[in-house]
Amino acid sequence: MTKTEPNKSRRASPTARAWLGLALAAASLTGGLFALSARHSGPPKAAILPLLSGERLAAEPVAGLSLQIPGDPNPHYYLRTKGRWVCASTYKVSCNGAALEAFLAALLAARGMERAATKADWANFGLEEAASVHIALHGRALLEREDRDVLASAAFSWHELEAGESAHAFARRQGEERSLETGFVPRAWLRPVESSFPPFVDARLVPQPFPPQAEHVEKVLIAAGGQTSLELVRTPHEVAPEASGVDALPFAWNLVEQGILQAIDPRLGEAYATFLLRAPFVGLDDPRKASTLLEGGGRAQLTLFASGGSTLVLAIGAKVGRAPDGSSDAAGFYVWNEGAGLLAVAEAQMEPMLLPRPADFTAEKPKNPWDEWLRAELAK
Q1: SS3 of 76, please?
Q2: How many other C-beta atoms can be found within 10 angstroms of the C-beta atom of residue 156?
């Protein structure tokens, strides 16, 4: 690993930069529409309008979002609660808040140029009811009111862009028939990669916001049957001016056995701690089943300690043949993150990486499967 303390923050990731790029691209194309209109002398030939508008949207905060995507039988509902976004229609699983906020910002800033005035033209622009993606913004009563407390909504085309085709889509605003052309392309945001989960779901066993911003994991404890099987501790390391390589890292990792600290290769400890913050799940189950499926706390308990004092516990449960929600056929095992209310299924190959043995850190030439996995993920 590098000198930059990889597990300290997860917010400046390539994925986050990709979301920002999408937002900037949408804003750039929207600006182009304005510039095109401005070149006309006299009255503009086509109206340029915000894609979402309304008195309530201007006066009330956006607390929810819904998506009805072509081919998906059920709409996806998202709710902002206690400072984070959750997918309310899928066990209230945590979402990638940065990505969702970027999507909302681009959506609210998006403008469109009128291309046709009547419903008769919808088919030409992919705006028929069944072919378009429907996006709505909601107030705080999204889950309580029968009308879902809609603040504003619009429908967008869902077509695949041809090679070399400029990024654009078509939209129709709530209650209107006219078709608008826009640089805001929902498909680019909602299907950047194929996934078995709803868009924006944070498919990690340890979703944000753990550890809190500017903090890092400084201790990992694994217990099984009431006995500690592994304890790793991160400590500061004073770097000498002439230090290089591993000796130049500002931290050390230690294996704790019977209260005695044994130094290990810091790259192993850092890679393991970083992996724990990114380890994925492949399936979900109803959190209300956790007490039954993980009776007695499960087969093992994996506790992460943040540098600011907060903790997070992953309970490792029974093995399962396939994800109960049908999202994966791979063999795996249950993981219960009580703090996030997440009952997930991880792939079987993740178990030795989540629950290593002391010997995995003290061997003469130890392998570093966590670093290999992280590098493979970054290369995707």
Answers
A1: strand
A2: 27
Task: Give 215-251 as a DSSP string.
Answer: --EEEEEEEETTEEEEEEEEEE-PPPTT--GGGG-SE
Per-residue model confidence as pLDDT tens digits over 151-197: 999 999 997 666 556 788 999 999 999 999 999 999 888 875 556 89
Q: How many CA atoms lie within 13 A of 19 on its CB side?
A: 20
CA angle 105, 110, 111 (to 5 degrees): 160
Residue whose C-alpha is closest to residue 189's, from 207, 167, 165, 205: 167
Calpha distance 377→380 (Å, rounded):
5
CB 76 within 8 A of CB 86: no
* 3-state SS class at 32: helix
Distance, C-alpha 334 to centroid of its chain? 20
Q: Which H or E run contains 58?
A: helix 55-59
Q: Going by C-beta distance under 8 Å and a sequence separation of 6 or more, which residues neighbour residue 24? A: none
How many CB atoms lie under 10 A from the CB of residue 99?
22
Choose among 147, 148, 184: nearest CA to 167.
184
* pLDDT tens track for 322-340: 655 555 556 899 999 999 9
Residue-wise pLDDT tens digits, 253-297: 999 998 999 999 999 999 999 999 999 999 999 999 999 888 888
pTM, two decimals, is 0.82
